[in-house]
Amino acid sequence: MSNHNYLTPAEICDTTVQAGVRKVKLPVVSMFLLGVLAGVYIAFASEGSNMAAFNLLAKPETFGLGKALAGAIFGTGLMLVVVAGAELFTGNTMIIAAVLDKKVTMSAMLKNWGVVYLGNFVGSVLIAFMMVQSGLLSSGANHLGGITIKIAVYKVGLTFTQAFVLGIMCNWLVCLAVWMASGARDVTGKLLAIFFPIWLFITSGFEHSVANMYYIPAGIIAKGTPAWADAAMALGVTPEKLAHLNWGSFAVNNLLPVTLGNIVGGGVFVAALYWYVYIKNGKNEAVKAKSVA
Fold first, then answer.
1. Average pLDDT per 10 consecutive residues for the chain, totaling 293 residues
2. Could you give the domains of the chain?
3. What are phi and psi of 184, to 5 degrees?
4. Cα 221 to chain center, whole Å?
C-alpha cells in the first residue's frame, strides 16, 4: 500500500473489489437496514437542497445559480453514506469490479442490489412523507411545495433516452466520488473527494435513481395539497402534466431508465473500466514481464 495519506488508483481498484466482497456478505437484515439509512441520508440531502434553492430555481435567470446552490448542499447525503456507514444502490453498482475479478458471483451482486434498492426506496419515501406531514413545503408562501411538484413533473416528463443518458452521467460522477473517497485515508480527504463531483452532478442536472425516490414521491404526495398544487401551476405546471405525475409514471418514465443508466455509469464507466486497466491488464503486463525475464 502507498505510504502517502491516499491510495493510488490501482490500490483504489483493489480496495473496491474487496469492498464488493464485504458488501455481498452482509446479513440480509443488515443490508436492508443500511439501505434504509442511505435512502434517508440522500432524501435529507434532496429536501435540504430544495429548501436552499427553491426561490432561485423558480426563475429562469437564476436557475443555474439555484442548481449550483443545491449541489453545494446535496453532497452531505453521500458524505453521511460513506462516513457514517450505509448501503447505497448507486455506489454498489461498483460491485461489478468484484464480479469481473471472480471474487463475487453475479447472483450475490444482484441480491445485494435488490435488497439495498428496496431499502433505499423505503428510506427515501419515509422522508418524503415526513416532509409533507411537517408542513415545511408551505415555506416561502407555498413556493417550496410548488417547486417540489414542478421538479417531480419535469422528471416524469423525460423521454426514456433522456432519463437513461442523464442516469449514466450522474452515476459516473457519483461513483468517481466514492472511488476517490475510498482512496483517502482520513475523513477530511473523504469529504473533499465527495463534495466536488456531487456538486458537479447536481449543478449539471443529471438523474440519480435514489434521489428521485425522494424528489418524485414528494411531488406526488404534495400535489394532494391544493395550496401546493396551485403554487406549482403558478410556476407553469399544466393540469395535464399534474395529472401525469403519479406512481406509474414515476416507475416507468423515470425510475426504470434512470436506474439502468446509473448501472451503466457506475458499473461500466467506473468499476469495469478501472478493473480492466488496473487489474486485468495489470496482470497481463505482469505475465509478459515474467515471460521476458
1. 80 97 98 98 98 95 97 98 98 98 98 98 98 97 98 98 98 98 97 98 98 98 98 97 98 98 98 96 57 46
2. 9-277 (1.20.1080.10)
3. -90, 140
4. 21
